[in-house]
Amino acid sequence: MLKALFTNKYLYIITFSLIAFGAVLLYALDKFIMPEYTNYNEGVTVPDVTRISLLEAEELLTRYGLRFEVADRRANSAFPANYVIDQAPGAATIVKPNRKVYLTVNAAVKPQVIVPNVVNLSLRNAQIQLQNYGLEVGSISYESSRFKNAVLRQSVDEGVTVEKGTTVDLVVSDGLGDKIVEIPEIIGLRLPDAQLKIREAGLRVGEIRFQPIKDIAPNVVLDFTPKVTSLVEGESLTLVISERFELIEESEVGIVSADSTGNN
Question: What is this structure's pTM?
Answer without folding.
Answer: 0.37
